[in-house]
Amino acid sequence: MSRTVFTADLHLSDDTPALNRLFFEALAQWRGQLDALYILGDLFEVWLGDDILSETAVQTASALKSFAETAPVYFICGNRDFLLGRRYAQQAGMTLLSEVQPLELYGKKYLISHGDELCTDDIAYQRFRRVMRQKWLQRVLLCLPQQFRKNTAEKIRNKSKAVQREMGQSSISDVTEAAVQTALSRHPDTDTVIHGHTHRPAVHHHDFQGKTVARYVIPDWYGKHGGYVEVSPQGEEIKMLEDAV
Ligand code: MN
């Protein structure tokens, strides 16, 4: 044993049957093999509230619940599924963590998050994020009629597709050095940072207070491919998954 998996950005929905299958297969393979599974946000493409569950959300909950009998499952919300709440977490056997979570694992100190909070050059998004993460506003949103929430999500999705077309993989949507330094200064004993969100899997190194801190970016799941960061007493490794079907 002595393996812990960090994954993120699966963006599962009823439109991603290959990815859903790939995730369920991974869970089956990880069964009995992991100390813990951490899902660092954007497990789902969209989340309108725990009272509106897609078929995929229901299937994912039962797959996770079953896996959680063998190892704890932790969840940090992403920018797509920040409305995911305690009710669904319980249904899926997941424990909700705060947005930026310090963690000790195999004698090393980790700092884990979704990663969108580190993309501070995207000022418009950070403003939107600050507003949307207000608990009172989320409570209001979750009280809106289901059909209204579905329509609004559709509008936001179309708008964000248009913005993505214009911006593409621009540097504005990547992590900034300043944001990493700020996060590290809040958690100065961090050895390694792990996050997702940017869809640019890589290992970066940051100088902080005379030491080098590694930052692992988790692969996103797309088409027939997925990925994760595996942590063991030997260290960290980025691993890829492929749907064989
Ligand atoms: Mn994201």
Walk me through the topology.
Elements: E1 4-7, H1 17-30, E2 36-39, H2 55-67, E3 73-75, H3 86-91, E4 94-96, E5 100-105, E6 108-113, H4 123-132, H5 135-143, H6 146-167, H7 177-186, E7 192-195, E8 202-208, E9 211-217, E10 225-232, E11 235-242
Parallel strand pairs: 1-2, 2-3, 3-4, 6-7, 7-9
Antiparallel strand pairs: 1-10, 5-6, 8-9, 10-11
Helix pairs in contact: 1-2
This protein binds manganese (II) ion.
Describe the overall structure.
By secondary structure, this protein is an alpha/beta fold. The protein has a single domain (4-242), classed as 4-Layer Sandwich (Purple Acid Phosphatase, chain A, domain 2), CATH 3.60.21. It has helices spanning 17-30, 55-67, 86-91, 123-132, 135-143, 146-167, 177-186, and strands at residues 4-7, 36-39, 73-75, 94-96, 100-105, 108-113, 192-195, 202-208, 211-217, 225-232, 235-242. The chain has a 6-stranded mixed sheet. The mean pLDDT is 94. Bound molecules: manganese (II) ion.
Instruction: State the CATH topology.
Output: Purple Acid Phosphatase, chain A, domain 2
- Tell me the radius of gyration: 18 Å
Overall pLDDT score? 94
Overall structural class, as computed from helix and strand content, comes to alpha/beta
CATH superfamily: Metallo-dependent phosphatases
Quickly name the level 1 CATH class.
Alpha Beta
Which regions have little confidence, pLDDT < 50, spanning 5+ residues? none
Number of helices: 7
Note the main sheet. Answer: 6 strands, mixed
Q: Number of domains in the coordinates?
A: 1
Bound small-molecule species: manganese (II) ion
The SSE string, one letter per element, is EHEHEHEEEHHHHEEEEE
Largest sheet, spatial ordering of strands: 4-3-2-1-10-11
- Name the overall outline: globular
Strand-residue fraction? 15-25%
Distance between the termini: 28 Å
Helix fraction bin: 25-40%
Strand count: 11
